[in-house]
Design brief:
325 residues, mainly beta, Porin, 16-stranded antiparallel barrel, globular
């Protein structure tokens, strides 16, 4: 497959570049990773009965740097699963990786974070309130078993490549093809960033390949940020022609050291309306209060406008919380 050769060649190129770079000398150090996402929510109108406290997710782990650019990271992800009861949680290994950073070159291997929407998620910055678009609508997984490399060629351009199993961190397999991805991030001037990504997830056994494209542009200032992204997934669930499209627009504002404002609008569409029952436009707006260094509380209002004929709009009020290091 052409993608295989391209990604492998790029990894070899980045490795050779990295081997000639100067390694920074730093003292060994480590840090604990503890984060808890929870919320209280209440629906209104047709979803009036949907209310209560919810433990969305918990992360527990540790990251340690050995110096000379080498570090390891292990994180457990404890969250809800659709495969069991609503009130049960399952623990997964979210990260178990070794990382080598030397100069402008970074190489990672193991259970690593995927590059498909990691940049957009960090730019959005409110993962505990609402997932980034591709994560929310399952365009891809946030972590998988594989290897990735990135290199900053200049202050304004960086490229990355990745090879992974393609099933995500909840279903580790080795027999159904691989996922190949490549992206580039351009920062033409301070604060402005543009990112393009393309990936192929092999089907195996004559199943159709899943193809992803992601386009992002954003501007971040000390007091505000704005961004827009457009995403495409072809052959969803490996069914030919079963395509999904979607946009996400978001803006944030910093009022002072303890108060932020945010607003976001997402739109999910499907080719020939095959997914019309789930297609919708979602809007979220609210504030974030920082109560010290380790606690964030974010009241927010959410509205979902379904595309399905005759479906009613859904309205929710949330109080989202994040506790952690």
């Amino acid at each position: 497959m052409k993608a295989t050769g391209f990604i492998a060649a790029a990894l070899l190129l980045f490795t050779s570049i990295g081997s000639n770079a100067q390694v920074a000398n730093e003292a060994p150090h480590g840090k604990a990773i503890v984060q808890i996402y929870t919320n209280f929510h209440s629906g209104f109108g047709v979803v009036n009965d949907d209310r209560g406290f919810e433990l969305d997710r918990s992360y527990v782990g540790y990251e340690y740097s050995f110096g000379k650019g080498v570090s390891v990271k292990g994180v457990m992800d404890i969250g809800q699963s659709s495969d069991v009861g609503d009130y049960q949680h399952i623990a997964y290994i979210k990260n178990a990786l070794i990382k080598w950073n030397v100069g402008n070159f970074t190489l990672q291997g193991g259970m690593i974070g995927m590059t498909q929407f990691n940049y957009q998620e960090k730019f959005w910055g409110y993962r505990y309130i609402y997932k980034s678009f591709q994560d929310q609508y399952k365009f891809g997984s946030s972590a998988d078993l594989g290897i990735s490399a990135s290199y900053r060629f200049a202050k304004w351009i960086e490229a990355d490549v990745i090879i992974a199993n393609g099933e995500g961190y909840k279903l580790v397999q080795m027999n159904d093809g691989l996922l190949y991805g490549a992206g580039t991030t351009v920062t033409p001037f301070k604060g402005m960033s543009i990112r393009l990504y393309a990936g192929i997830n092999e089907g195996g056994d004559k199943a159709k390949n899943i193809i992803n494209y992601a386009m992002f542009a954003g501007y971040k200032h000390k007091y505000f940020s704005v961004a827009v992204e457009y995403n495409i997934m072809r052959n969803n669930r490996r069914v030919e022609g079963q395509n999904l499209y979607g946009f996400s627009m978001y803006a944030t504002g910093t009022i002072n050291s303890w108060l932020d404002l945010y607003a976001r609008a997402d739109g999910l569409m499907s080719s020939n309306d095959w997914n019309k029952a789930n297609d919708d436009v979602a809007v979220i707006a609210g504030a974030q209060f920082k109560l010290g260094k380790y606690v964030k509380i974010a009241p927010n209002f959410r509205m979902s406008i379904p595309s399905a004929d005759g479906a009613s709009n859904r309205y929710y009020g949330y109080i989202s919380c994040c506790f952690g290091l």
